[in-house]
Amino acid sequence: xxxxxxxxxxxxxxxxxxxxxxxxxxxxxxxxxxxxxxxxxxxxxxxxxxxxxxxxxxxxxxxxxxxxxxxxxxxxxxxxxxxxxxxxxxxxxxxxxxxxxxxxxxxxxxxxxxxxxxxxxxxxxxxxxxxxxxxxxxxxxxxxxxxxxxxxxxxxxxxxxxxxxxxxxxxxxxxxxxxxxxxxxxxxxxxxxxxxxxxxxxxxxxxxxxxxxxxxxxxxxxxxxxxxxxxxxxxxxxxxxxxxxxxxxxxxxxxxxxxxxxxxxxxxxxxxxxxxxxxxxxxxxxxxxxxxxxxxxxxxxxxxxxxxxxxxxxxxxxxxxxxxxxxxxxxxxxxxxxxxxxxxxxxxxxxx
Length: 352
Hints:
By secondary structure, the protein is an alpha+beta fold.
């Protein structure tokens, strides 16, 4: 079975946890830096010096608003042997690149829709094939004993995750006519802070309150049977709610379609809802896996594949990981690569 490497952090402060991160994932972090040096040059015409300058524009804001997350990244850079500015590029790559293409399909399933009285949240994480080699599973024990597990690119804060309070979050890209080059809180920083939340209300407040400059979608859920989708549009975060105990989202703005500027095809979120809806009242993790492996609309399907004639890994698109967070049992299942071909590795948050 192919699996992402598991990195464990448990030091008593953010900087020291970052050092643990950098020490354990030094190879993957350096690989990630080298990958983005080439990728930014090829896809955006931006050299690494320019990328570092772009990334450090966010530093005053994140240092003031999110010192815990910033300190963790300082420790990560120090221990991995790369510059802090390099790590800042990794954690602002969404804002710098903001791909005009679909990125991820997310879902939540509440108790009423399932067979076993459980709450699930998760996604197919779609990205460039070049990042699979440096993606990891990150497990963190905070100062207060809270545990967090999630999937990310090495050197980045979490892209999605779940904590020991039974709160989970996944996200996917959005494009709106309100996106700009202004400085807002980067999504990686926002997600990490949100995953430190102690309640559903706190997580909602974190995601909706922070100033942002580009759009992103956040689907959150809790073990106490709540789910909410937050379309993070600059100046106007909008809320979407489950129907029939199911909530899905892909890469198009649903609350205010007139603001949507995505160039991707609009069907994956709706398709995943249709697939899950047919099992309403009986949904299990097995059913979710079947739905996440769906190929309608191939290759731009829920289970996303590279175009058959595509040879450039910097332009191709595919599902990097398929993820199921079981918030009720505090377990996560992660499939490395496309779920139609791979197997899911299971991790128990409390036993890691």
